Amino acid sequence: MDYHHAMLCRWLIFLAVLAGCATTDKRITPAPVVAAERAFAADGAKRGWAAAFRSYAAPEAIMLSPDPVNAHESLAKVQGDGETTLDWRPAYAGISRTGDFGFTTGPFLIRGREGVVGHYFTVWRLQSDGTWKWIFDAGTDVVDTSPVALNEDIPGLPVATAGAATPQAAVADIAELEAKHTSSATLVKLLADDTRVHRPFAARGIGIAAAAALLAADGATSFAPLRREAALSGDMVFSMGEVRDLHEGAERLRYYARIWQRRPDGWRIVFDEIVPRRG
User: Fold this and answer.
1) Helix 31-47 and helix 49-56: axis angle, to 10°?
2) Beta strand pairing status for 132-140 and 86-88?
3) Range of the domain at 171
4) Hey, which end of the chain has fewer CB within 10 Å, N or C?
5) What CATH number is associated with residue 79?
6) What is the per-residue pLDDT across 179-198, written as a single tens digit (0 to 9) for each?
7) pTM of the prediction?
8) Phi/psi zone of residue 163: left (φ > 0), alpha (ψ -120 to 50 degrees), beta?
9) Is residue 221 scored above 80 in pLDDT?
10) Is residue 250 part of a domain?
11) How many CA atoms lie within 13 A of 7 on its CB side?
């Protein structure tokens, strides 16, 4: 399927979903991405983490290994299907207002070992065949001692009430904002009241006060975007890229990933994480 055909299929899905929910946005919830994440994790427990990652990755999916690479190319280097001991569970999720784009995040752990290793972050897109595939997956060393139960009801991001005119317009909006706000000190001004921020070796920052404290403590001075993806409804944008700063006298390279949502008062960051470069 070429790019134009794929985009046409996505727009047809968008129009079909829009027709089905034009009377009420209350029908749109993060439940589909939560279900996709749980099925993904269950597949990993059954067949192995690598097999599951291959099956649920979109063709254009990227992962950090240790730098951003096509997921399928990276996973092809893994021999076999991987261990079945990796366990992960959604603890928070969000979805676009027309149900084509979303994310989940939550703890990951190793079966048979005490404690949470960290928190993952996965971005999902509805495919032209009606299945959900992830387009980005990464995790960071969030301090967390209490994992959620396997099928626990979890909180979700409130669905947006409006979006930009097109996904391209949404991406352009975020490109302009990220060009103006290139450090933690200025990005803090764009945090949503209910934002969530993850930083290595720190507890989750839930809510603007805790999130702002994490950004202040991190002190990242340079964010350089590498990729942006938008929901077809123009209300949600995923952005990821490089983070560079000085650490212990040397330049440090890490990667950020965030979710922007269109709010009545403008675009706001509703999720933001930094992932150390390993390797």
Assistant:
1) 140
2) unpaired
3) 167-276
4) C
5) 3.10.450.50
6) 999 999 999 999 999 999 99
7) 0.90
8) beta
9) yes
10) yes
11) 8
227 Cβ contact partners less than 8 Å away, ≥ 6 residues apart:
62, 68, 136, 238, 239, 240, 241
Q: Both ends of the chain: CA-CA distance in Å? A: 35
- Average pLDDT for residues 120-142, to the nearest whole number? 97
Structure tokens given for 29:
């919830």
Dig out the tokens for 70 from the structure: 């096509």
Tokens 């150390």 found at:
276
Cβ-Cβ contacts under 8 Å for 272 (sequence gap 6 or more): 187, 191, 195, 196, 197, 198, 211, 215, 256, 257, 258, 259
**Does one domain contain both 136 and 221?**
no
State the SS3 of the chain. Answer: CCHHHHHHHHHHHHHHHHHHHCCCHHHCCCHHHHHHHHHHHHHHHHHCHHHHHHHHEEEEEEEECCCEEEHHHHHCCCCCCCCCCEEECCCEEEECCCCCEEEEEEEEEECCCCCCCEEEEEEEEECCCCCEEEEEEEEECCECCCCCCCCCCCCECCCCCCCCCCHHHHHHHHHHHHHHCCCHHHHHHHEEEEEEEECCCCECEECHHHHHHHHHHHCCCEEEEEEEEECCCCCEEEEEEEEEEEECCEEEEEEEEEEEEEECCEEEEEEEEEEECCC
Phi-psi region of 79 (alpha: psi -120 to 50; beta: other; left: phi over 0): beta
- Specify if 70 maps to a domain: yes
